[in-house]
Amino acid sequence: MTLTVREIINATGGKLLTDDSRTFSGVSIDSRSINEGEIFFAIRGEKFDGHTFLDKALLKGSGAVVDSRPAVLAKDRTIIFVKDTLGALQDLAHFLRTRLDIPVIAVTGSNGKTTTKEMIYAVLSKRFNTLKNEGNLNNHVGLPLSLMKLQPEHEAVVVEMGMNAPGEIKRLCEIAFPTHGVITNIGTAHIGRLGSHEAIRNAKLEILNGLKVVVVNADDSLMMQGIAKAGNFSGDVVTFSINNDSQVMAKDIQTTENGINFTLNIKDAGSVPVSLNVHGTFNVYNALAASAAGFSLGVSAEEIRAALESFRAFSMRFEIVKTKGMTIINDSYNANPSSMEGSLKELVRLGVEGRKVAVLGDMRELDEYAEDAHRTIGKMVSEMGVNVFIAVGEMMSLAAEECLKAKKDRPSPEVYTFKNIDSANENIMDILKHGDSVLIKGSRSMQMDKVAGRILNVI
Question: Which of 47, 89, 99, 382 is in Cβ range 3.0-4.6 Å of 406 for a Cys bridge?
Fold first, then answer.
């Protein structure tokens, strides 16, 4: 989708500093990867200022949007001055989105956002030419950059929306103007910043404003209470669940060597058998959320089944690798208390004959809740039937301490503690044995993927 100088100025309220009327093929905020024909937005971040790289960007790009007037204007380049370059980027993304009268599905929730977004994309692509945001470009910068890739031929959009504080989902919705919303669940991610589960729920429910349809988890009682209290929501509510009656349900769930089989029941659309090629009950919930979103947009049950069965796990998200007598479960992308609990349950549920080994790193962004959350994980490990607990990090050492002293009617797990990734990697191969099933999980900043790399490179 091309952009004219006039369109950019109208969308951003900017002022043209050069005499130019060219069109642009896209935007960029990275001077290293800008292409000819793109316009550079000089974004100011906490650790960088795009204006520093303005000259370099103009060597390859066709122009720039700035909020600091250059001392010298580059020749044969378009320079547009705005009050705030980030705000201008967001305004331009909103302008592009509203030019197309198409459904936009926004996905939020404490856990499973990215996987659910990818599953929805697979489902919608059976019926529509669909755009998605790549990876987890889900914030105030990544979302507008994703919307900049809209083309006239697109028929639907699915985007992930992340948040760390109240008001952030509201702002992302102002940019993307979604017609459909999906809330996967309410967990403990960012509880240290928001203060309570209710505050997390209220921040997620900011997505409701202006939606035609919201898709919610009927097995999440806190979420359903919030929906019930949202008296000003006039759109349709589509529910999905495993345990409670809803429009979209999974029945007869069975774990297989390759993933999970279940029967997908969609009210008024029939039932189909589904064989997911990913593990974990949480992925059944993600698949149900995607099914409900597809159903709300007219995708048939058979099309949904085909899309879900073609889906494959993403790197570091409960990615299972079986090699040389060991099963490695690489779930190292991120962690919070609720996702940690879910992954531990799946480790135990796998039902393999060898030892069940949990290699867990610190969970971040919990603030004053951190100690209690980690000690709770330690009790959980002691009670679930985990055979070996390898704790990595200062806070996870508290979980190890709790695991050792917890009362239980089963043999105690072997417990090892390491201060950091490097010390864990030095010793882990002396702990693991043939036949082990090994879960690796922790917050992204803990770099637990290095443990997975160490194991997979050695065995």
Answer: 382
- Write down the pTM of the prediction: 0.92
Query: Which tens digit of pLDDT belongs to each residue from 418-429?
Result: 999 999 999 999
Instruction: Measure CA of the first residue to CA of the last residue in the chain; give whole Å.
Output: 49
- Residue-wise pLDDT for 33-74, tens only, equals 999 999 999 999 888 899 999 999 999 999 999 999 998 898
Report whether 3 contacts 39 (CB < 8 A).
yes
Characterize the bridge pairing of strands 23-24 and 3-4. antiparallel
Task: Name the pairing type of β-strands 104-108 and 38-41.
Answer: unpaired
Contacts of 390 (CB under 8 A, 6+ apart): 357, 358, 359, 360, 416, 417, 418, 424, 428, 431
What stretches of 317-364 show up as alpha helix (H) in DSSP? Answer: 337-349
The closest of 344, 364, 332, 329 to 450, measured between CA atoms, is 332
The string of pLDDT tens digits covering residues 261-296 is 999 999 988 999 999 999 999 999 999 999 999 999
Q: Which CATH architecture has domain 100-310?
A: 3-Layer(aba) Sandwich (3.40)
Residues 6+ apart with CB under 8 A from 372: none
Q: Which CATH superfamily is domain 3-83 in?
A: MurE/MurF, N-terminal domain (3.40.1390.10)
374, amino acid identity? H
Domain boundaries, the chain: 3-83, 100-310, 319-458
